[in-house]
Amino acid sequence: MSKSPRKQKPGGIIHTYQKYDPTKFPSPKAPPPDLVSPAMEHWLMYGDRMELTPEQLANAVKIDPSQIAGLGPSIDALIKMLEERKRKILETYETDAAQKAAKKAYRDQGESMEPPKRQRERFQLGFEQEQLYDLERVWYSLDDERSPFGRDLVMLIEHLGRKYEVDQLVAKYTFTGRQQMTVDEAIEVKEELEKIDELLEQLKQARENAQIGIIDMEQLSEYADPGEMEQLMQLQRQVEQYLREQAEQQGLTNQSGHVHLTPQAYKIFQGKLLERIFSNLQASRSGRHQGPIEGEGAVELQSTKDYEFGDSLTNMDIPQTLINAMLRQGDERPLQMRSEDIVIHKTKNNPKCATCVIMDMSGSMRYDAQYANVKRMALAMQGLIRSEFPGDFLQMIEMYSFAKPVAPGEVIGLLPKPVTIHDPVVRLRADMSKPEVSEYRIPPHFTNIQHALQQARLFLSSQDTPNRQIILITDGLPTAHFEGHELFLLYPPDERTEAATMREGKLCQQQGITINMFLVPSWSQSEEDIRFAYRLAESTKGRVFFTAGNDLDRYVVWDYIQRKREVLG
């Protein structure tokens, strides 16, 4: 008799995970939540005027619920409980009796009233059409609001409001029960059903992105058991702890109850901007990468080639050269090197480029939040140059009634200047050389392109590279300029200001500086704004671009890279 085959025992390595903690062991299904982007978008819009609290940040962040163990089932149980409560209410009551009672109370009150002759017509019209606004206007027009008619009118308005609520209940919900309700009971049922709907919406949203903070715990506690509430509170604490850890990892710090940025957060956000920009470019079949330009350059590449006469030995691949010599010579010593053993690193020529970005922060840039698009572009440019062209020079300049250099960490806090003069015609002149004349007393919301170009020219003139350019981002004509120490603020735009701006543009051209003007749309933009852009480009042999504000970062970054290719080519 043959033996029955032995039952094979399962073998191999078995992994056991104990005490699963979602804050320490996040799900591999999704990447960590992006806290930097909503935080940076907040500062792009509000600058330093409005602090960001951890609660606001948490409500703006979307989390994969699978990263919080037990979140989905717990919320699903609460949703089912509320839906069951709502179903029982709808299957218990009917609304015909309450609707008829509300209508009868309103009609009885109104038909028993005797309005004064002067208000009779309007009263009758409002009463018959059940128009709350008309009845309120009658009450406001009374000579004596405490008269019997005035008091009765207040009661009538109250009855009409209650009738409105019952009608809304009937229109919004479908009741299938038979138990009659009074008007008061119908209004209470309406409030409860609306509260349940609100909680259901909060729970479903929390189930989608783990935003437990949006749930009204006090209202939910009226329906949920204490055990369910404690479990939900525990999940909320887990989410808060997880967000705190992710915020620290992404460079966001909590100082005195407010969120603050670190350089790491800037770097992460700039990387995300560039990732979005280049993903859009790839989607439109515009490639990002270019083939290296090989030759006698300054940057070594990983790839190598055999030595040729004239190659610089400073780029020798020493380890590979020694290996080649030993393979050829074998055990023979001393080691003698020949020209055929030598391997040279290929190089590329990466010429340095100097750029000044002029950011319009005048009063008109607040419309459609164009200033936020400008700052987003500036951060993208900083990230691009730091990561891919570290040898390039970049200087940001804020432009308003004056022009001032801006440090990289200050860009996020820039805001459009408040409009302090609303006169249709402005003709102001200030001698800024006088000690009693302060910048803080000058209306800041004008557009001084001339001064901005001058500041950019001074920065670029000290850069030892022939590749110098200005990126000018504005929404229209200049309205301010300097003549020596005198500042002129002229609105509507004046020929004198344009002439001063053109002169400064010509000086830039004479120093080999290219002006690239990006004209963003504005509510006040006219044909004359566009003509000015063309005149500036033609007179300085520069370029002008017309782009929507939301695409500004993509256009500027891609144009910068295209210009780099032209220089390399």
Keywords, separated by commas or semicolons:
569 residues, alpha/beta, 3-stranded antiparallel beta sheet, flat
Task: Give the arrangement of secondary structure elements.
Blueprint: H1 36-46, H2 54-60, H3 71-92, H4 96-111, H5 117-129, H6 132-140, H7 148-172, H8 183-209, H9 217-220, H10 226-249, E1 252-255, E2 258-261, H11 263-283, E3 294-306, H12 318-329, E4 343-348, E5 354-360, H13 370-388, E6 393-399, E7 403-406, E8 426-431, H14 449-461, E9 468-474, E10 480-483, E11 486-491, H15 495-510, E12 513-519, H16 527-540, E13 543-546, H17 552-568
Parallel strand pairs: 5-6, 5-9, 9-12, 12-13
Antiparallel strand pairs: 1-2, 3-4, 6-7, 8-11, 10-11
Helix pairs in contact: 3-8, 3-10, 4-7, 5-6, 6-7, 7-8, 11-13, 11-17, 13-17, 14-15, 15-16
Describe the structure.
- The structure is a single chain.
- With 569 residues, the chain is of the alpha/beta class.
- It starts with 35 loop residues before the first helix and ends with a helix.
- The model is unreliable at 1-28 and 282-299 (pLDDT under 50).
- The strands form 4 sheets. Strands 7-6-5-9-12-13 form a 6-stranded mixed beta sheet, with helices on both faces.
- 30% of the residues are buried.
- Helix content is 47%, strand content 14%.
- β10 (480-483) and β11 (486-491) form a beta hairpin.
- The protein has helices at 36-46, 54-60, 71-92, 96-111, 117-129, 132-140, 148-172, 183-209, 217-220, 226-249, 263-283, 318-329, 370-388, 449-461, 495-510, 527-540, 552-568, and strands at residues 252-255, 258-261, 294-306, 343-348, 354-360, 393-399, 403-406, 426-431, 468-474, 480-483, 486-491, 513-519, 543-546.
- The protein is built from 17 helices and 13 strands.
